[in-house]
Amino acid sequence: MDIIGIILFPFKWILEAILVFFHAALTAIGFGENAGYTWVASIVGLVLVVRAALIPLFVKQIRTQRSMYTMQPELTKLQKKYKGRTDRDSREAMAREQMAIYKKHGSSPFASCLPLLAQMPVFFSLYTTLTEAQQSKPGVGLLSTELSQSFAKSNFLGASLSETFLTATSPSVMIMAGVMIVLMSGSQFITQKQIMAKNQNPDVQNSQYAQMQKVMLYAFPAIFLVTGISFPLGVLIYWLVSNFWTMGQQYFVIRRMPTPGSIAHKEREARMQKKGKGTTPAIETPSEEPETPQPTQRVQPVSKSRAKKKPKGKK
Q1: Mean pLDDT of 114-137
Q2: Is the pLDDT of residue 44 over 70?
Q3: Which of 180, 198, 184, 183 lies closest to 250 in space, CA to CA?
Q4: 189 and 221 Cβ atoms separated by less than 8 Å
């Protein structure tokens, strides 16, 4: 077993256990043991379990994105401070001050990618499981040879779950794979667009982080569009359902935890006011500033000599 296989082994074992559990449960209530819809429903169940386990990471991602937008003015000021200074001491000082800003806001440069990175072992485990199933190989855990063959040979709407767009043997496989690839890329685009349109503070739209978000808006859908043609239908179903989960979950979290100053935040404050709950004091309600006393003109003291001196023209 190579190093990748060693790393993926526990993920594949857990993945297979969840998949087999849902397949056994659905079969017990009357679903067809070798039917494609049984395996598709098992994949959907797998998505629900995996994404539910990733909810804490997703919430952390949203909070990190809020922190990234909040700290952009400080990062921009830091970049201007060290602009043109390429010596080693300046680079190290800039790195220390940058990490201090991240620590101050309780964030990190990589936290926003955690949910996606956490899914990668699951994705690759599912991909290798289906690839091995095409060769009638058993899994590493509860996915026996019989179940592996059942998965690979099952058909859903006339398409085999183990086939890809490139290895399609019938037009139905190509059509289904093509539709799912487009939906997968489109849902990824909408998910990223939702963040930029609703949960981004307009004051930091030209920041480096915002520009990176714009690149990701088109980069990830393009990557899925190109690489999706080599994914088995079972993997496409998993990724598509996972993207739909992300869209709904992100809509809920942004609605409840919007970035201060964003469109979503203003909409939330409007809803709160409409319900008579007022605005969030920590964000919107300004504290009453004490009235600044008006300066009064100082009265100069009059000396005795000036007081006794009579004005001219008077006796």
Answers
A1: 73
A2: yes
A3: 198
A4: yes
Question: What is the per-residue pLDDT across 199-241, written as a single tens digit (0 to 9) for each?
Answer: 666 655 565 666 676 777 788 888 888 888 888 888 888 889 9
Q: Name residue 42's amino acid.
A: S
Q: If you count them, how many residues does the chain have?
A: 315
Sign of CA dihedral 52, 53, 59, 62: negative
The CA distance from 172 to 155, in Å, is: 11
Return mean pLDDT, the chain: 76
In whole angstroms, what is the distance from residue 311 CA to residue 67 CA? 72
Q: Which two tokens stand for residue 171?
A: 């037009």
Whole-angstrom Cα distance, residue 229 to residue 37? 22
Gap between the Cα atoms of 72 and 78, Å rounded: 10
Dist. CA 268–CA 283, nearest whole Å: 12
User: Cβ distance 68 to 209 under 8 Å?
Assistant: yes
| 223: number of Cβ within 10 Å | 12
Angle, helix 145-153 to helix 114-134, in steps of 10 degrees:
100
**pLDDT of the residue at 179:** 92
Residue with more model confidence, 252 or 297: 252
pLDDT band at 28 (very low <50, low <70, confident <90, very high): very high
Q: Which two tokens stand for residue 137?
A: 């190989």
CB 119 within 8 A of CB 242: yes
Place of tokens 């049984």: 38
Q: Which residues face 156 on adjacent strands?
A: 159
Phi, psi for residue 159 in degrees, rounded to 5: -125, 140
pTM score, two decimals?
A: 0.70
For the four alpha carbons of 185, 188, 189 and 190, in that order, the dihedral sign comes to: positive
Residue whose entry in the numeric block shows the structure tokens 């809020």 = 66
Dist CA 159 CA 168 (whole Å): 9
- Enter the tokens of residue 96: 């220390």
pLDDT score at 197: 64
**Kind plus residue range of the DSSP H or E element containing 80:** helix 55-81
pLDDT at 284: 39
User: What's the CA gap between 13 and 8, in Å, rounded?
Assistant: 9
